[in-house]
């Protein structure tokens, strides 16, 4: 923060100082405040910046007003994410607002240089935060090692063998972790639902038949320990065997279950005929109502998902944590071209990530989107189509979720469920 303050002082001193006028011989009285305190109190961050930048001299030379504006800005910033990437966007927003008030290119370039310097400082902080912490061996571990050397010969050999098995198992798990990272193509896997990207190109799925290799299994109980001079044989006996990995059978492509622009009646017709149990009275559903679950990875599940989106005639309201799958984006673009009204709510950090589609859909195709501005995640994953059909579940609209992750969705036309989800979407749209 000290470096940033120095940069700001340098930027203000780089411009020629205005001539000082005699304080006691002002020809005209100071104008009344052009800022409406009540309006500022309820302004969003962008509006607050715009209004205060236009009256920056008034704010800086009126202490009570300065404190008041500072309080409003602090409240706005508290609602934002405090990650380095989001802070960079906030700084850019502030600098852009300041540039709009400048008349000369020289003044604008000074502000742009300040922005560059601040972002450089933040990038250094981001790299420092990302560096792995150094770990120290615990004294307890050292004591255990020293104590392991004192027992009887047989116990000593057993302890060494057990330690060798554990070390070898740890090393193997670590190697597999590194292989996973290399296959992903990233230096590290982050906390997001969608940081993982499949490494395969042929569409086949690799599904482990056993628990993940990261889950270590206890070594098998060894037979009576007898001192052996042949160390190579011990290593061969203790080496964990790699378990085979089964491959999923590649699914054939399927035609769309529901034609584009078919409408909600076609959706009901499909589910009641193709999945009668999902619409039967035995399942507790009344006539023409259905509730069907789908699971991923599965081409049938993805086909059902896109078919319902394609059926839209009037509206699609999307509330999704991550939207990065271009195939899904194409479905929304096609619906927009049919004059379907589409609204998207997504997470602010996900929307700013590489490959995110929300900004592109708005800029190139006129599909509006909004994001949260909170420290938490906007983690919903649902869509309401024509106010008649609901898609909801764990499924993010990403290729990782579609082709690799274990995900689920529920598609239903139960009126009460749709009413509640539509009300939640409308409330979030108003809030954001």
Automatic annotation (TrEMBL):
GO biological process: lipid catabolic process
Gene giving rise to this polypeptide: ABSGL_08765.1 scaffold 10421
Keyword Lipid metabolism in annotation: yes
Protein name: Mitochondrial cardiolipin hydrolase
Natural source organism: Absidia glauca
Region feature Disordered, mapped onto this chain: 1-36, 124-257
GO cellular component: mitochondrion
GO MF assignments: RNA endonuclease activity producing 5'-phosphomonoesters, hydrolytic mechanism
Origin organism lineage: Eukaryota, Fungi, Fungi incertae sedis, Mucoromycota, Mucoromycotina
PLD phosphodiesterase domain residues: 374-401
Coiled coil region boundaries: none
Family: Belongs to the phospholipase D family. MitoPLD/Zucchini subfamily.
């Amino acid at each position: 923060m000290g470096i940033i303050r120095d940069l700001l002082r340098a930027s203000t001193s780089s411009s020629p100082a205005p001539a000082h006028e005699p304080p006691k011989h002002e020809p005209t009285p100071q104008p009344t405040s052009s800022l409406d305190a009540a309006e500022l109190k309820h302004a969003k961050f962008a509006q607050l910046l715009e209004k205060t930048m236009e009256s920056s001299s008034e704010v800086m030379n009126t202490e009570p007003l300065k404190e008041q504006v500072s309080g409003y800005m602090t409240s706005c910033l508290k609602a934002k994410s405090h990650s380095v990437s989001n802070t960079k966007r906030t700084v850019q927003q502030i600098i852009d607002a300041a540039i709009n008030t400048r008349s000369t290119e020289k003044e604008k370039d000074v502000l742009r240089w300040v922005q560059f310097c601040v972002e450089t400082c933040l990038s250094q902080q981001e790299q420092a935060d990302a560096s792995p912490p150094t770990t120290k061996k615990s004294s307890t571990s050292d004591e255990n090692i020293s104590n392991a050397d004192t027992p009887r010969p047989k116990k000593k050999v057993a302890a060494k063998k057990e330690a060798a098995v554990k070390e070898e198992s740890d090393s193997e798990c670590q190697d597999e972790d590194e292989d996973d990272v290399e296959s992903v193509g990233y230096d590290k896997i982050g906390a997001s639902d969608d940081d993982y990207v499949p490494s395969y190109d042929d569409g086949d799925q690799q599904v482990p038949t056993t628990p993940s290799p990261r889950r270590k299994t206890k070594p098998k109980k060894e037979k009576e320990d007898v001192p052996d001079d042949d160390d190579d044989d011990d290593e061969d006996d203790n080496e964990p065997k790699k378990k085979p990995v089964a491959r999923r059978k590649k699914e054939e492509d399927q035609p769309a279950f529901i034609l584009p622009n078919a409408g909600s009646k076609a959706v009901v017709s499909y589910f009641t005929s193709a999945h009668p149990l999902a619409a039967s009275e035995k399942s507790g559903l009344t006539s023409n109502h259905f509730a069907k679950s789908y699971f991923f990875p599965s081409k049938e599940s993805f086909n059902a998902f896109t078919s319902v989106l394609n059926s839209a005639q009037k509206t699609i309201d999307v509330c999704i944590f991550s939207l990065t799958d271009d195939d899904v984006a194409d479905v929304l673009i096609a619906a927009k071209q049919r004059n379907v009204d589409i609204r998207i709510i997504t997470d602010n950090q996900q929307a700013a990530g590489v490959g995110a589609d929300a900004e592109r859909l708005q800029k190139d195709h006129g599909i509006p989107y909004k994001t949260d501005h909170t420290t938490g995640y906007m983690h919903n994953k649902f869509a309401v189509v024509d106010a008649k059909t609901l898609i909801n579940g764990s499924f993010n609209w990403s290729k990782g979720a579609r082709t690799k992750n274990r995900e689920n969705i529920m598609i239903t036309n139960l009126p009460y469920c749709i009413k509640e989800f539509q009300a939640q979407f409308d409330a979030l749209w108003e809030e954001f």
